[in-house]
Design goal:
The complex is a heterodimer of chains A (about 575) and B (about 120).
Chain A (H helix, E strand, L loop, with lengths): L7 H15 L4 H26 L8 E4 L10 E4 L1 H24 L2 H24 L3 H19 L5 H32 L4 H9 L1 H4 L3 H19 L8 H7 L2 H26 L17 H26 L3 H25 L4 H33 L15 H15 L5 H15 L5 H29 L6 H10 L6 H7 L5 H4 L13 H25 L1 H16 L1 H8 L4 H4 L4
Antiparallel strand pairs in A: 1-2
Helix pairs in contact in A: 1-2, 1-4, 2-3, 2-4, 3-4, 3-11, 3-14, 3-21, 3-22, 4-5, 4-11, 5-6, 5-11, 6-9, 6-10, 7-23, 9-11, 10-11, 10-13, 11-13, 11-14, 12-13, 12-17, 13-14, 13-16, 13-17, 14-15, 14-16, 14-21, 14-22, 15-16, 15-17, 15-21, 16-17, 16-21, 21-22
Chain B lengths: L1 H20 L4 H21 L23 H31 L4 H7 L4
Helix pairs in contact in B: 1-2, 2-3
The chains are: A mainly alpha (about 575), B mainly alpha (about 120).
Amino acid sequence: MAPNVVIAPLVVALVTAILTLLARSNGRLVRVLSVLGGLGYAVAVAALVAAVAPLGAARTLVYEVSAWRAPFGIVLVADSLSAFMLGLSAIVSLAAVVFSVLYVDDFGQRLSYHPLFHFMVVGVTGSFLTGDIFNLFVWFEVMLMSSYILVVFYSGAEHTRATLQYVVLNLLGSAVMLLAIGGLYATTGTLNMADIARRLGDPTTYGVAVVPVLGLSAVLFAVFALKAGLAPFHFWVPDAYRAAPAPVTAMLAGVVKKVGVYAIVRLYFTVFAAASLPVSLPGVVGDTPLAFFGPVLFVMAAASILFGGIGAISRDDIDGVLAYSSISQVGFIALPLAIGATVPSVRALAVTAAVVYAFNHGLAKSLLFLASGTVKTVFDSERFGDLGGIAPRSPVLASGFLVGALALIGVPPLSGFFGKLLVFDTAARAFAVDAAGAALALALALVGAVFTIAYFTRAWNAVFWGAPTDLVRAALPERWAPRGPGVDQAVADGGGDDAATGAGGRFDLAPVSTVREIELAGQVAVIAVLGLTIVGFGIGFEALFGAAEAAARAALDTGSYVDAVDPGTAAAVEVGH
Amino acid sequence: MTEFVLAGVLGTLFALGTYLVMRRDVVRVVWGVSIISQAANIYLVTMGGIEGAAPITGGHVGEAYPTDPLVQALVLTAIVIGFGTTALALVLTYRVYQEHGTIDMYELGTTGGER
């Protein structure tokens, strides 16, 4: 009795990848297949979410590959946490794939873009679902292998240089991950995450030495931090994000980064939390590995927030600001996790805050990167010096960017407000236990929030407000000829030059005719829909919060995770060596 | 005895790989990465125990416990992945050379940095 719905998203993404690869001689067919695949993936994820949480009662579904029983075979596990992350992945990848069809040039689309994109989605989905630690490594590789080629997609000078750095770093990360996994297998005698948790919970029965597990999990932690782009493993982020095509960057920042976050929550809060250390470490209160990772996470979160914030303020191009902002925002995701790891009484709230923040950042940051992609298409530049005054000429694009920026700043009623609120709430509630630490966390969150306001205000002022530069004047009227209602607006906005060509530009609300106009209008439409989605999640936050709470409960309930994956107990003792 | 030899080999390989990764020449960096990932593979094999009998054929018949065959399956997977990524890294090195006219990390850093 295998719940096949668990593998549905995986199968859909894989089939789409293969079909787009087979159909690559026919550009139009590839696009149709790719978008259909994106839609199918969203439907499959929706079915999975519905199966995991039927009427609010959370379940854990387990798919045993080839019907091999849990500790021996590979299992795919869908619980509320996996379903939550898959939901994010479905929304972002659907938006990104539709945007790609309109954004990437013809030759690129026919080359290999769509198969790679969907293979990346396969890797992400597998990482969210797998219940086997070596299998996690394999899914990481599937995801990374496609992302390497997508980052170097334009293969210019900048792109090859950035990708070389990205590839070498991640290859080293993979080797280190193998070391950690090999060590964990040798110490615990199993690769199944649930089985690891069970053995760590009862080390004497299973003959597990817990102390080496702490060291190995610390090694593994570095790998996940590299994937999530947490300081001090953040330095690949800006170059890689700038090199990749906009929809790919949206996926990298929105979803692929969250795989690292998910892996930290899943392995450290669900699996390694089951252990209790027989030794006490200096400066660590409590005896679980989480008590050790709390301060580590805290330092990394602090460094990410400060470094990313300062970096974003000092950039002079949109993608640079957004990339450094990603580093800072991942710090905001790690901050509640750090507090929750240190203070057990707020742990559930902390994980809820982290996943809500991750969800909000995933949506908002991908929206912003898509908007930046459209700006790049229209003006062939994304430097602040070249841009200005876009807002009156393209109100929908500007509104989309504004929604994304405000969501990250945390303005109600957008979902980002609740994310920030929960982060602050977590820190405030930790006051009772550790006043100094909580005050530090609050101060850090506050400084990070101020940074966020500063760099988005700066980007908004430089790109969307102010006087239009020559480049903006030249680009908009040429591509979007006046079509009635737009003209008055353009003249009113002070562009005296427009009178010379008789052109005014509100391209995103005007009727369109040429292929290029249709593509751009489509891009703007994707941005608008994604912006409305963010507003929708803010207004209907109750449902999102319920899902996030269920995800946090699933992440912290080691016992029921273990029981759902591997109910048998006697058989497991015999497999060690 | 075998343990000591393998431990020595592993240490040497990691040292060698790390040394190469630190070099300025991109090709050497790729060699270094590939040596480190091979070292990780050897390490993974040793994690299954190296003193036991051959699995399946040996079984529990004699005194010796069978060696864990699972790690060898893991290593096979890792080798295949490593092969693919090394090939990609080498092609990428070639493309970097075509684009920049150099494969010196330092020169890449100074000429190809911030736009």
